[in-house]
Amino acid sequence: MRFLGQQVQRLGEVDSTNAVARRLAESGAPEGTCVVAETQTAGQGRQGRVWHSPPGGLWVSVVLRPRSLGPPEVARLSLTAGVAAVEAIREVTGLVAMSKWPNDVVVSGKKVCGILAEGRWQGETVEFLVIGVGINVAIDLGGLPPEVRASAGALLEPDAPDAFAVRERLLSSLLGKLESHYQLLLSGGFSGILENARLYSDTLGREVVVTGQGAPIRGTAVDLDPDAALIVRAASGDVRVISGEVSVRAARGDSAG
Ligand code: BTN
Fold this sequence. Notes:
Blueprint: E1 8-14, H1 17-26, E2 34-40, E3 58-64, H2 71-93, E4 97-100, E5 104-107, E6 110-122, E7 125-135, H3 146-149, H4 163-186, H5 190-200, E8 207-211, E9 217-224, E10 230-234, E11 237-241, E12 245-250
Parallel strand pairs: 1-2
Antiparallel strand pairs: 2-3, 3-7, 4-5, 5-6, 6-7, 8-9, 8-12, 9-10, 10-11
The protein binds biotin.
């Protein structure tokens, strides 16, 4: 029986669904607790960035309590959530969603979904994880700050008549896929998820620059390793990237520039 989303808190405006889910987890909310909001006033992105969360998006966070996962495996879970988001968007909209390492989802090169995984630990033991997923379902891109708008996309126009129904179907599909992939991960089946992550990857095969880990790393993204790290073939040899921001320098098969 499905446990993810057995308890869904549907809220109007919140600071951040991740913050709400964290507070619930801290007060003992069970695994599978799910928080969905209409808008966020302080949506949190990776690397301390703001995540703009106007009406029309799917802003959702879930609480997980994976007692058997150690800190290194959280990167796997984060990649797994990205795979679930790609599959949910493909299934519900038919759009060719792709993943951009580590776990963004892009459609036609524009970011339509971001994922923020956070956790609280007691030594090597995880107390809880919060996986936050933001999908620009039918948001008004014109309302985003220009620097965000340049790279952001949405799945539908803001006035699309089916926006509400699509958002609900996406939520259901996402929770279902996240749950089944999570269970696969817990039972040692990450290799199958990794295979799909490679298939959906919009990063592999591209010339990239990785920033946020000291000196920028330039090279070709060649693989995802079994710990969900990105392998970049640089002039000095292969570099294993476990965090940072990846920007693509030139598209596969595109002319340079
Ligand atoms: C990123 O920087 O790409 C990650 C963005 C994650 C945004 C989602 S929206 C739902 C949840 N609540 C938050 O405050 N952040 C995540």
